[in-house]
Task: structure prediction
Amino acid sequence: MPTKMHIGYDLSWMQLEGRWRLPGSWTNAVYPDIRIFKELALIAERGLLDFMFWGDGTGIPSTWKANRHDAVKWGVGWPRQDMSPYIAALSQITKHIGFGLTYSSTYMHPFYTARLLNSLDHVTNGRMAFNVVASSRRADAANYGFDELMEHSQRYERMEEFIDICKALWASVEPDAFLWDRESGQMADPAKVKAINHRGKFFNVAGPLACVPSPQGRPVIVQAGASPRGIQASASFADMIFAASPGLDKQVKHRTELDAALVAQGRDPSGVGIVWDIVLIVGETDEDAKRRHEQLLTAVPVEAVGAFMSHQCGYDLSKLPDSFTIEEINEQIVRANASPVGFLNMTNHFDPKEKVTRKDFYELIRHHTAGYDHAVVGSAARIADYLEETFIATGERGGFMIAHPPAVPRDLLNVIDFLIPELQRRGRFRTEYRGGTLRENLLDS
Ligand SMILES: Cc1cc2nc3c(=O)[nH]c(=O)nc-3n(C[C@H](O)[C@H](O)[C@H](O)COP(=O)(O)O)c2cc1C
Result:
């Protein structure tokens, strides 16, 4: 039997950078109308997907030209609601599909986050995943009292401490601590409820968590670090990894580096899957998919492109000289404490040492912003071939998160109606949910 893939669907960007107006996007409602999300949740569960996902970013991009004008005007990186109440509502009309939610360990407090995720795990009946991010975007920092981005490795040090505390809090009330004995009136056993008394570099937290243990005990913990420091952090605590798809060679290298980091932490790499973030455009035929691919270039207004990419890489691209090398700009991004990984993925096609003109560079980022340059496009059979090849080459652990769909519900429907049946025919995707919780479904392969 072939090993099965796990598939998530990333809805973080559906309302952003012009996607909301592309043919195939929802009608008769505007973001963030809950009816849009309800429809998407029902479609995704019909297709037996593992989870729906929302990333987080809390600021309006303002790195480009040092102001937010273009971002506000064209809907770049904003608006983004806090999705936790939405997830609670969606869990009431679905039974199996999981929910991935993102919070920043740089800006949030671990006690608040652990308590919130415990409640969400109850409401969803054990279907929560928590994507913890270090946050590399300047607009977010300013909303939480920081004038500058925290230094990159310090952000990860803080993340490790944050997760240690969350895990300790989730374990601070034992699963059988509650008695609910109506006769005696005893509610819980004090011997099974313990303080954590954490005193650390970034946080002091006494605990215990004043909550009833949740169905999964703790949410599935996900992390997407791609730098050596980020990979080291994810190897130390994550149940599952998210990663970009910059090309098979780089993905195999990422898998190898993660495996080595897991072994160094005394963990078994066979139990830790990477879910590759990928832009897929599935059509009924190859021609149909290609037509849709071309529409992508009309989605993002030209004026919005600089605002988007400057936000993503934490560097004001309006300041680029007429000609430069990728290496030079990358050095400046590193010096500014932003994360260089996004910039390096975007500039994959360039020789880092060769001179590039500003005009050529802008044309490239226009394609990159729309997802045009890295979309995998075609009929279900063509895309299934691609996914199988990547899955096998990267160790058949984890799967894919379909990201940046041009327009939903159309592109989600194409995945569910064309791609999923093709993967099922090949024995690569489930034909029913067999687990009771998200964790069980992710382990079922
Ligand atoms: C699938 C995926 C989802 C991500 N979601 C977010 C997010 O919601 N918010 C955020 O600030 N960063 C997000 N990131 C960025 C990562 O957390 C990380 O910062 C990035 O991969 C660069 O790695 P580094 O921090 O090790 O340099 C995401 C990355 C991936 C691949």
Observations:
- Residues 55-57, 102, 133-137, 224-227, 230, 242-244, 277, 339, 341, 401 surround flavin mononucleotide (CB under 6 Å).
- Residues 6-287+374-443 form a domain with the TIM Barrel fold (CATH 3.20.20.30).
- The mean pLDDT is 95.
